[in-house]
Amino acid sequence: MLSIRSVSKSFGALRALKGVSFDVPKSRIHGIIGPNGSGKTTLFNCITGHLKPEEGAILYQGQEITGSSSHLIAGMGVRRTFQGGKLVSSLTVLENVMSGMSQFSIRDYGDVFFRLPFRSSRKEAEIEEAAREALALVGMEKDAERWAVDLVWAERQFVQIARTLVSRPDLVLLDEPNSGMGTQETELVEDVIRRIRDRGVTVVVISHDVKMLMGLSDWVTVLNFGETIAAGTPEEVQNDPKVLEAYLGAE
């Protein structure tokens, strides 16, 4: 589904990524861990077209997308969340989720703009149905009409995840989906991610929560100072001396 091949990215003298490589098979959960500043979010930004790597290649379903625009990559079936829990506060929960549908054809535009003013367009109805389905998947179907400004942090994160699902993507990238959450909320996030995977969607997850990723992921990549220092099953990674030293606090 996704191949990262020797990807490097610098910001001036700072080398944020140094030859990072890994593959993500279809319908798997791939975890990425590493200390703050290890290059995790920079990698997501390169995958989704927000940044262009200086070296290496990124392939999605066998097609190179390195340096492509974020809009083009999203249109190919790649969606992501952001660590900051970004929502439009002046919109409802449902409207925020509906905004994740960005693919419109010329026919769709005609359906939206050339309709009677008192009737919803066919396309709008389809998007609303998909949005309500996504909200149900994350357990927030009863919150559809609430204003986003009234949501607490954890709820905002779940709405972000729902927004990635409304277009029924093939690949979802989740950046710190349980950030700021307690144990019970984190368990809900894990359950949601597994349900996404069970629908055939491939998921790549960044998290500072080692325990969550080790219990959730099929495969784990560990970054430190922009380099891959370990990769393998959760069991293999947890016992890797480099990981224990760099991330898990070994003395």
| Total beta strands | 10
Structural class: alpha/beta
Order of strands across the main sheet: 6-7-8-3-9-10
Biggest pleated sheet? 6 strands, mixed
What sequence of helices (H) and strands (E) makes up the elements?
EEEHEEHEHHHHEHEHEEHH
Low-pLDDT sequence parts = 104-109
The Cα radius of gyration reads: 19 Å
The number of helices is 10
The percent range for strand residues is 15-25%
Please state the overall shape, judged from the principal axes of the Cα atoms: globular
Q: How far is it from the N-terminal to the C-terminal residue, by CA? A: 38 Å
Summed over residues and divided by their number, the pLDDT gives a mean of: 89
In terms of quaternary structure, the protein is single chain
Q: Helical residue percent?
A: 25-40%
Q: What key attributes describe this structure?
A:
10 helices, 4-stranded antiparallel β-sheet, globular, alpha/beta, 251 residues
List the helices and strands and how they pair.
Elements: E1 2-11, E2 14-24, E3 29-33, H1 40-47, E4 55-60, E5 63-64, H2 70-75, E6 78-80, H3 93-98, H4 106-113, H5 122-137, H6 153-165, E7 171-175, H7 183-198, E8 202-206, H8 210-216, E9 219-224, E10 227-232, H9 234-238, H10 241-246
Parallel strand pairs: 3-8, 3-9, 6-7, 7-8
Antiparallel strand pairs: 1-2, 1-4, 4-5, 9-10
Helix pairs in contact: 5-6
